[in-house]
Amino acid sequence: MSETTETIFSKIISREIPANIVYEDDLALAFKDIHPQAPVHILVIPKKPIAKLDDAESEDRDLLGHLLLTAKRVALEAGLENGYRVVINTDADGGQTVYHLHLHILGGRQLAWPPG
Ligand code: AMP
């Protein structure tokens, strides 16, 4: 599966399903992950329906930068001054399960490396 049509995240953007939203602007939305893997686990998504990182184009350069800056802002607003991790799982081997591009922000504990 690699197409972006209707995903659970597009339904969160349209408010068809609820989410714990912590940040929103014209381009991006951030909300708490429903199955947190760390004390803080927030997802940052573009409102533009890009299925996965592989599908981003050079025209998305500013949007991708905006998503990273949004991740930084959201992480610091969540109190992660000691650090955090930003992860983009991409396609099957990357463990992606929702095909709407998203950045995981994980923090609030010491994270192990390498990830599994
Ligand atoms: P990935 O495996 O990288 O595609 O991550 C998808 C993430 O979306 C997982 O961490 C899920 O827990 C999370 N998730 C799935 N459905 C929801 C939802 N309705 N609200 C918030 N997070 C969700």
From TrEMBL:
One Pfam match: HIT
Top-level taxon: Bacteria
A GO term for molecular function: catalytic activity
Record-linked CDD domains: PKCI_related
Transmembrane residue ranges: none
Extent of motif Histidine triad motif: 100-104
Active-site residues (renumbered): 102 (tele-amp-histidine intermediate)
Domain HIT: 8-116
UniProt cross-references to PANTHER family, sorted A to Z: HISTIDINE TRIAD HIT PROTEIN (PTHR23089)
The protein's name: Histidine triad nucleotide-binding protein
Classification lineage: Bacteria, Bacillati, Cyanobacteriota, Cyanophyceae, Nostocales
